[in-house]
Amino acid sequence: MKIGFFDSGLGGLLIMKAVVKHIPAYDYEYYGDTKHLPYGEKTEEEIYAFTKAGVEHLFEKDCALVVIACNTASAETLRRLQDEFLPVHYPERKILGVIIPVVEEVVASHCKRVLMFATQRTVSSGKYHLELGKRNELETKIEAVATPDLVPLIENGNITAANAIAQTLIDERLEKGVGVDGLILGCTHYTVLAEPLRKIYSTKIKIFSQTEIIPEKLQEYLEKHAEIEEELDTDMKRNVFLTEHREDYDQYLQTLLEGRFI
Asked: Span 86-90, mean pLDDT?
């Protein structure tokens, strides 16, 4: 059996690539719903229907567990899929998200004033704040900022411009005397900004990138759930499926994956 990754587009490949590098022995399957992106403009029911279709596809491809790499889908539909869909249709399979692992890292860091860049749907869902509240971290505050302009810039390879926008948003708060000691990159695309921003802010701001958090968290999950890990094939196969292909995706995938999965 395989480990599956779902995303509303191509950004989730960054997380899958990081996981493959960290635990390379397993077989991996990726589903990118490029036909319906972006999810930020869709209704909650549409997001649920599209995400469920992707998860079903991955289960049909023999995935034992699926990681919802899309923050918007994790915020809007993950719990519903776990509570309503899985018990009826795939009781032996698992669906995991990316939000709780990040919140766990924020709590462990003891950061007090955390800025978060995310899509409008992720921001409006309040999911990060909800999960933080469940852990009674009342002293930790998250300021969520919708940054829709970053995704097209990153997909077009203009990392410099995207980094400049992120830096401006951070500097505005620092100049106003608003303390910022943590930054959540709350969209899969944004993870490419982790290293450029670290070079600027060094140790002053702790940056939470899902490409760094999810691989270790997934490995820990598999170590705790031997019944799943034992079912996974170790042929090191990787497959990427997109619901709609465009010629410009070829170059993007080539750049993103550096021509291959490790």
From this structure: 96
What DSSP letter does each residue of 7-26 carry, written as one string?
A: ESSSTHHHHHHHHHHHSTTS
- Return the DSSP state at 97: -
pTM of the model: 0.91
Q: What's 239's DSSP letter?
A: E
Which domains, ranges and CATH numbers included, belong to the chain? 2-97+212-257 (3.40.50.1860), 99-210 (3.40.50.1860)
* Distance, CA of 207 to chain centre: 14
- Active-site residues, by number, are 70, 187
Residue type, 78: L
Amino acid at 233: D
- Residue 223 contacts by C-beta under 8 Å, 6 or more apart in sequence? 229
Across 4-24, average pLDDT: 93
Long-range contacts of 79-87 (CB under 8 A, 24+ apart): 80/48, 81/48, 81/51, 81/52, 81/55, 85/52, 85/55
User: Does the pLDDT at position 33 exceed 90?
Assistant: yes
3 state SS of 14: helix
Is 204 in contact with 198 (CB distance < 8 Å)?
no
| Helix, strand, coil in percent for the chain, rounding step 5 | 55, 15, 30
